[in-house]
Amino acid sequence: MSAVSCGFCSGFKGQAQLDRQSFHRANLFQPASPPECRRSCQTLGLAMKHCIAIFFLLVPPPSALAGSCPAAPVEIEKAIRQHIVTLRAVEYCAARTVKNEGGITVAIYTAEGACASLSSQAKPGTCSNNWVRYMIALSSQPVTAPVEVGGKGGLNDTGVKISEGIIEVNGLSPGPNDPLCCPSVPETKRFKLSPSGLGQVRP
Q1: Phi and psi based region of residue 156 (left: phi greater than 0; alpha: psi -120 to 50; beta: remaining)
Q2: Domain boundary among 43, 58, 73
Q3: Chain-wide mean pLDDT for the chain?
Q4: pTM of the predicted structure, to 2 decimals
Q5: Are residues 27 and 126 in the same domain?
Q6: How much is the pLDDT for 49?
């Protein structure tokens, strides 16, 4: 069985060996002279370079896809990471809120797709489309334990205020006729910071 070989451009290892009889039967075989091979390789190499350049222009790096979390004190960053790992969830960084006022730093963050109570085998963050908003606080005391402040089907917070140890979380909650995507009822939740942690202040 005879074959024709064409030396490819640098960067390609080995040779492309083409079965002459098979390609003749398919009417696809065209014997190539060395100059034609070189021209083909040059054209192929240029096309590949263009494709690679376009790929990196159109596809953002993984860090850009994941988003960057707003900066928070080291103690808060560590507490959030530990909580997210415990939940076997992922954090939606773009929605993190960090507020510092009067010696108190508050962080409200989103845990998505928690797997802890659903599956021990699934990849963290892939177990549902549910999301929950949690809040932790740092003052002269250690970082508080997380408290739930809202999430899917609940309060969608839009702002936070801190005054004399009271943390006020404002936002919108779904009304009787609202779809989950579009809450319209104003709601405020208040939490008191004490040595024992964060506790909700009921009206």
Answers
A1: beta
A2: 58
A3: 79
A4: 0.67
A5: no
A6: 53
Does residue 91 share a domain with residue 38?
no
Q: How many structural domains are present in the chain? A: 2
DSSP one-letter string for 160-174? EEEETTEEEEEEEE-
Name the least confident of 19-23, 61-65, 173-177, 180-184: 61-65
Place of tokens 């942690």: 197
48/71 same-domain check:
no
Return the ∠ at Cα 157 (arms to 153 and 160), rounded to 5°.
Answer: 155
Question: Are residue 53 and residue 127 in the same domain, yes or no?
Answer: no
- Identify the domain containing residue 115 by its residue range: 63-201
H-run or E-run covering 76: helix 74-87
What's the CA gap between 176 and 78, in Å, rounded? 38
- On whether both 102 and 177 belong to a single domain, the answer is yes
Question: Interior CA angle at 198 toward 88 and 190, to 5°?
Answer: 110
CA distance 33 to 6: 8
Phi, psi of 142 (to 5 degrees): -60, 165
Does 180 lie in the same domain as 88?
Answer: yes
Structure tokens at 34: 């060395």
Q: What digits encode the pLDDT tens for the residues 92-117? A: 999 999 999 999 999 999 999 999 99
**Cβ neighbours, 10 Å, residue 158:** 11
